[in-house]
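Agenda item 2: alpha-D-glucopyranose complex prediction
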Amino acid sequence: MTDMVWEPQGDWKWWAHDRFGLFIHWGLYALPARHEWVKNQERITDEAYQAYFDHFDPDLYDPKTWAQAAKDAGMKYFVITTKHHEGFCLWDSKYTDYKATNTPYGKDLIKPMVEAFRAEGLRVGFYHSLIDWHHPEFPVDRVHPMRDNAEYRAETAGRDVRKYAEYLNNQTRELLTGYGQIDLIFYDFSYPGEDGKGRDDWQSEKLIKMTRELQPKILVDDRLDLMDVPGGWDYRTPEQVMLRKQPQVDGKPVLWETCQTFSGSWGYHRDESTWKSADQLVRMLIDTVSKGGNLLLNVGPTARGEFDQRALDRLSGMGAWMKRHGRSIYGCGPAPEGFETPQDCRLTYNPDTNRMYVHVLAWPFRALHLDGFGGKVKYAQLLNDASEIPIVPAERLARWGVDENVLSLVLPVQKPDVVVPVIELYLK
Ligand code: GLC
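Presented output:
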């Protein structure tokens, strides 16, 4: 642990290098197929929700195909919902009957998934819900599906959150001891205050201590309600938003990852139509990395156990771009001071290779002027095909009266046939 307000405790170097991961939200909510919060939104009782448990049978589940799709998209780690707020466990926990092994499917889903992704070289992360809308000792609160049911509230008034916290603790230990090295854990989420739940309910300090003891390298998210506790979190998790700048603590930039959906729902949602295009998603990834963050992009598999076609199309669209432009993403972060971001562009920089990447979001005619780059670049090329981009000689710029701080590049008239063209600059 640390005395600093913020200092990451886990092994974060690989993560800050890899930048791009896959989130997977999978549970019983794949059957109603209308948002993972459906039990809450529609105030569904345990009895009625049982229908999804009784019919859970993802017969086409083949995690190797998932891992392959993630790898082809350029993703380097994945985070799976071991349990979401509905309380259903994807692994064979000895502390509950409410688990995949007791459904018609009858098998553990986590182990083969972890093995399949590891086999493709991806790191392993677990999302684990602090909230549990099925557990018999989880007190009904303002976020619970039964919150408006006065009778139910009265009947369950004796629930003991300490017993629930013990369950949470036991299950976390199971997850962190049963599957080898776990690289990251995403606890979700706290809502302290009146009729809410926070660190005392979850016993967050005990939980994070155990987490770090069992998995010394693990990275922990920021939703345990321990923001002000030294060592209480490793990285920030802004959700479904694009940031204007890198988050800071005490004026110091911190590790962060934005998690994003394809369509607004995390769980499989059959009828949701506000899907982002692959083009948009590529831009989101670039923007995030230019501000020193990671992108965790979510797929909600179907109840048959597949990624649906819309998800596959986006993943392959991103993969096509990543195949030729991964160099401007992996190992990259914000540009050092002094280099200004040209209009309609995003900069990323790799400190190990000393190369700068100019992502050109709107292709200009012929000339691209870069303030603060004058005299600092020895060679420029398009990243997609390594074709030279001529640099206008400094003497000529001087004759035109252009400031010596400026670097001018001569672009081809036609935009290269990629979603976002990138110019790779070898710095002196
Ligand atoms: C939330 C939601 C949720 C989703 C998660 C992802 O807090 O409750 O459904 O799993 O964020 O970040």
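Discussion summary: The domain at 13-325 is CATH 3.20.20.80 (TIM Barrel).
Owner for follow-up: CH.
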